[in-house]
């Protein structure tokens, strides 16, 4: 019989479909795993509600559990329990190495534009904080575009949500 | 239909229609950053619509797609504000800002709902909407900083104001007025809101366009 730990280990091999350097477990979107006989119940929270990768992620989890000889029951939880603070420290480091600046920790107060424009966001390539906001929006809902004035490199900044 | 489903459909319809209107700028916005911004905002809004339709579909025994695309035009509950086709930049920015401001007020009320599913989804939407609001506020700052921008924004707000009020229930409208007047530094006209239930001519046109591919292929077609 498959164990909860085996399921977590298997899920940690599933890459994020849009940023394949990190896994679904690194991303913190798997909220809970329960095993009951041959059925594996997985609770999964979307990052952004409009993320087109939701369905591929679900199918990938089902396929992984299938390989373990069990049957997955993936439940999408549409509540507020995911935030970018759920990305694991390992996940943040993998993002940075791949050129995606990891999200800033969620502040207690409201997000505001001035902080995004001026804040000390670090360039993932050279480490400088001399970076500026180019566009709040980027190639996917979870990313903004910034520019590093030190190494003159545009880069993608994971949004804090 | 329960009051809950009615509420879910009203908000889902708002987000679907506004998302579609935002997506009309994809490829033709005044500059590339705005192509990206409006496309991304559209994707978020349509994602919110999908999540809300799924909650409603579970109650009605149907699917999110059927609720989004297969109802007759008169059954859509979206505010007339999001039905309007205004492919002109000042009006686009005015609508974007007015809608996001109204939506923030609405979401704040829903986050306090006794229904945990509604409160949860409202809180999740609000995290994403924070970026839409920042984008809208950035544009309001930009337009208010020049005489021409200011006058075009004010003109567009005056035109859209009765529609913007119609997004919210009666008890939330005073808060929208307070915020908009404070930001623009002037009073707005006392007008009759154009409320939900009114169907602009653009509604049927938009549905026709939105469902063209769906209607061209039988249900269950694999692409």
Question: Which percent range describes the beta-strand content of chain A?
Answer: 15-25%
Shape of chain A: elongated
Count of DSSP helices of chain A? 5
Structural class of chain A: alpha/beta
How many extended strands of chain B?
Answer: 0
CATH homologous superfamily descriptor of the largest domain in chain A: Fe-S cluster assembly (FSCA)
**Which residue ranges of chain B are poorly predicted, with pLDDT under 50 across at least 5 consecutive positions?**
none
Helical percentage of chain B: over 70%
Kindly describe this structure.
Chain A is of the alpha/beta class and 161 residues long. Chain A has 2 domains: 4-76, Fe-S cluster assembly (FSCA) (GMP Synthetase, Chain A, domain 3, 2-Layer Sandwich), CATH 3.30.300; 99-158, no CATH class. Chain A is 25% helix and 24% strand. In chain A, the strands form 2 sheets. Chain A has a 4-stranded mixed sheet with strand order 4-7-6-5. A 3-stranded mixed sheet of chain A has the order 1-2-3. Chain A starts with a helix and ends with a strand. The model of chain A has no long low-confidence stretch (mean pLDDT 92). Chain B has one domain: Ferritin, CATH 1.20.1260. Chain B is 71% helix and 0% strand. Chain B is built from 10 helices and no strands. Chain B is globular. The two termini of chain B are 34 Å apart. The model of chain B has no long low-confidence stretch (mean pLDDT 95). The chains are: A alpha/beta (161), B mainly alpha (223).
